[in-house]
């Protein structure tokens, strides 16, 4: 957080000076800005449930206001997204299966002729996360495994989403 503020301090000072604020005002209210930046960073982190880097880009599952949002970012720009259609996160469902040395957790949604499943699996000491895209027409499935997982809080969504009763994994 501090590094971000220090690296961007000159830019923020120039922008606020251009708007008519002087450097004394910036010093006086800089603490409030820093607190706001810190609080917004924490709120953003708390609303982020999944984030990982795959070969197609950065996969993110986050709470956006009151809606759950799945997004893919390529080169820093959002290239695809899907948002829940209602306040109850309609459109997204979850599955959870667990036994000794095994834990599978999926959050899925349908978009057109595709089913997307963000997964976090643990099986006999091996952790795997990513997203699976299933084409409902030709029944082909592509899995994009995470190269690097930044955040994995998928299991917390079991309290916010409905169970997918049509999945063999159960709830």
Describe this structure in words.
With 171 residues, the protein is of the alpha+beta class. The protein is 25% helix and 47% strand. It has 2 helices and 11 strands. The chain has a 6-stranded mixed sheet with strand order 9-8-7-6-5-11, with no helix packed on it. Helix 1 packs across helix 2. The longest helix is centred in the first third of the chain and has 25 residues, at 23-47. Residues 1-45 have low confidence and may be disordered.
Order of SSEs, N→C? HHEEEEEEEEEEE
Largest sheet, in brief, is:
6 strands, mixed
Computed structural class:
alpha+beta
Report low-confidence residues grouped into runs of 5 or more.
1-45
N→C terminal distance = 38 Å
Helix content: 10-25%
Name a few traits of the molecule.
171 residues; alpha+beta; six-stranded mixed sheet; five-stranded antiparallel sheet; globular; disordered N terminus
What's a quick, concise take on this entry?
With 171 residues, this protein is α+β, with helices and mostly antiparallel strands.
